[in-house]
Amino acid sequence: MSLLNLVLLLPLLGFLACLFLPKKNLGLIRMFTLLVSLAIFVVSLGLTAPFLDKGNGTWFVTDVPWIQSPEIRYHVGLDGLSVWLVLLTTLLTPISVLVSWNYIAKRPKEFYAFLLLLEFGLMGVFVAWDLFLFYVFWEICLVPMYFLIGVWGHERRIYAAVKFFLYTMAGSVLMLAAIIFLYVKGNTFDYINLLELLQSGRLALTSQEQLLLFLAFFVAFAIKVPLFPLHTWLPDAHVEAPTAGSIMLAAVMLKMGTYGIVRFCLPMFPNAARECAPWIVALALIGIVYGALVALVQPNMKKLVAYSSVSHLGFVVLGAFSFNQNGLDGAVYQMLSHGISTGALFMLVGFLYERTHSLEIKDYGGVSTPAPWLSTVFLITTLASVGLPLLCNFVGEFLVLQGSAAVNIYWTAFAALGVILSAGYMLWLYQRTFMGEATDELKHHMPDIGARELAASIPLIILMVWMGTYTKTFLPSISAANARILEQSKTRVEMRVQATAGESVHVR
Amino acid sequence: MQDQQLWLIPALPLVGFLINGLLGRRFPKALVNVVALGSVLFSFAWVLKTFNALGGLETAHVERYFSWIQSGSLDIGFDLSVDRLTAVMLLVVTGIGSLIHIYATGYMSHEGGYYRFFAYLNLFMFFMLTLVLGNNFLVMFVGWEGVGLCSYLLIGFYTLKKSAGDAAKKAFIVNRIGDFGFALAMFLMVVNFGSLDFQKVFAAVKPMPVEQTAGLLTAIALLLFVGATGKSAQVPLYVWLPDAMEGPTPVSALIHAATMVTAGVYMTARSAVIFQHSPMAMDVVAIVGVITAVMAATIGITQFDIKKVFAYSTVSQLGYMFIACGVGAFSAGIYHVVTHAFFKALLFLGAGSVIHALGGEQDLRHMGGLWKKIPITFGVLACAWVAISGVPPFAGFYSKDEILLAAHHHAPWMYWVGVVTAGMTAFYVSRAIFMCFFGDYRGHHHPHESPVSMWGPLAVLALLSLAGGMYFKVPHYLEPMFPAAEGHHDETLVMISVAAGLLGIGIAALLYVVRPGLPDTIAAAFGPVYKLVYNKYFVDEIYDAAIVNPLVGTSRSFLWRVMDAGIIDGIVNGTGFAAKTIGGGLRLLQSGNIRSYAAWVTAGCVLVLLAIGVVAGGVR
Questions:
Q1: Could you say which of A325, A389, A427 has the minimum Cβ distance to residue B169?
Q2: Hey, where are the domains in chain A?
Q3: Contact B187 A401 (CB under 8 A)
Q4: Which ipTM value was assigned to this complex?
């Protein structure tokens, strides 16, 4: 069994085992989940070996039949695009367990089981090379997240959970239809086969078909990203979700959308993608500035961070639709950086919430006096989030903006406004929360960061610096995967040119 | 050439930062001092050692470490280099930096968060040295943003004060606006030249024709200059610097007078090749410099907070440096960076000594007659005073002289405006000195002289302020990089500018020593004008009313409440409501029979497929 299958299997086994634990024994349940998720993380480190060594290629491929008719295969594999997203998932799961340690008292067994199921689904999305399998994983992710929000959330959790579910379902139904349509035409669900059929022209799509298929996939992904104006489920979901839910949602789940765009939309339907690019870029640009402006005026911390995600993920979409190496590399790097920095932000907001039971910024102020280390960690995360050089987000944002500048410098100028505004809303948040004089009551409820919280924070802080300085660990494999995707999304542009040339010959 | 381990120069203060930042809370003050001072002094020593080994530095010495960002054909490395321009900046940063670190051990000795202060100060040194050592624009940008961060941290050092937090945030955001320009300039460079390496970019620019109408190089130069206006506090982005005086005084001296704020001048001089290809951009630089110099000087005349006077003075002097760059006299601009670092650091540290002596008093109206009580402080401040006033043969005279002559050569009107500003400069500094040290003491606190750790560095700076201009012939040293402008030395022009300075001192003496009642009468006579200037032309208020408030207001009341919560979410919830209503009708279909559900799902899928087929022209 390849290492990838093991990494994929472990959370599923963990999930099943968790269901059989005694439901009253909170200590056992959380310790079990922590150890399982840590073990998965350690094993998953092995997945990086070929990428650190060679930098490119597809590894750990398993391709066996799953269902005979219609032919659906268990086809999984890793390339430079997936591997770091898988690692992001396996890293953030134990961190989510740590932050839920005391926070989750209600029905802990189900909670931790769902967390492992979520890990399973998320990883599956990133490694599936069969469209149907991909869809199955995609839908698996919905279920645990729905319950995490709906059962362990705050007051309006039901509204938020239903909204989240319906929004996403609306998109994925379209995607399912598109997947079935491709199967009908190409007689395969296999991504690699489909790609080859599409590229060789053996599966010929009219431009209108291609456009509709592209849109069906794209809308499903865009909702997940979320791209303006499909974003309104996100602030509600975040505000209501428990801390662990917010972390997994922001850090990993949103990346399902951006991953899908890069993996499927660009190489499978390149012509349609290019045709739609100006519109999509326009939405991304609006999202960047709009998200930042709305974040600026949020009285609720989680909403603020949620809107900042809308802004940050606009960069990812912008980079992807720049159709060049820098833009695409930046987009993927930004996915990872955003996962680290925004995951950390939600975690830290969760720490504050656990102390005071408030998410309203006005209830804070002067936290740095009683909790200097907590505020230091928050500050570093803030700086990463606003794109300070030598921290992770800078690299992604720089490359995205560089990529878009090669297409249109005005796009870049507009998007860079978001970078200015990010300093505005994040530093204002920091000032209102951590600076100034603390009330006695706040001081009383504000112990400094504890050992468990520190254990959850330090890996993220290290990664912020690592990803900001020594990009050689991550960027070469990402670049190699992106180069291939770019190549795939180019060939058929030439094909079309050839085809039209051929037609014109024919006419003559 | 042999490897000089240039990376050690910034890395040493970084180590100091890490040690003090992580462990300093438990350290005794003496140990914090050893770490903080030791790292900076070692860095200074390494700079000297490097120069000793590299000799004349006729060409740049480049060291490449590892690739930072590599994507496609773009490859940006952590590369450092030293040439003569860097050398000058390195000496100023590490030299003045060391002195100010020593001073701060005395000044901050009674403050809480002692280790935190020195950790930040060391971090600043790391970024500032990275800024001047970087061999490409992106590494320079690392330092550029990094010093901005440290400035943010140190302005907001007194975290309990809301005004400090506001000032810190303002500084960071206004600088970000400038950085926006810097970043766009970099993107244009990569798109057009494929690199950010100084050597490659400048080699690509050199053969290009000088742009008579606005073109690519004009755009790049102007965008870079937008960055410079932010960092170096020029119109219209100067507003953060006066507020930055909320930080402890050693910070004001090091970051907001001697080093960081001159980064914009350094960057402009570094990119001289690009600027020289665009006369239009050069004119913009010079004119912005002139406007800033005059405007800030007028405000400086009316302020009563001693640090604010010197802050506006800094803005004004930075304007001078940009005049120099704009008229093509880059080496004169850097010359002024150096001399200004001497006397302005001294002015601030001297002011700090006064504030220290008076237990925190900063208002000139509550000082007076202090020369007897704190004579050493008075003595060193007097040195800075004559230096900034342009009295020959002290430091400020030389660099200001160079700038004014170059300005005259370029456009005589700039010279004359510069002369008037020189007069105003001498006037407001003299005013501050007279109000502080002469007349009768108007305060209540019992003044005491500062400890030797404070006045020791002041004495060194005093010496530099007096003799530094004469001794360090910066333009001569930089000649291989910036050839001296033709233009002969005109004695008359020099005499006029010196006279303007002396006149400024004389008028100040008349108003504040001989006839102390007169300033109020004059202020009253010029009522509305005085009010306008005293309130800094209401620029902050205008920015708030024109930009900040509308932005926040629109975001809150329109974008969020109406657009997001109202329209977009309204549509979503409306759809949900409609679906629920329709679903109520369709409830009849719900039989509870799983097989019938399955049938419906299948039917639905078929329907969607058919729809796609129909729209897309049928399934083939």
A1: A427
A2: 272-500
A3: yes
A4: 0.90
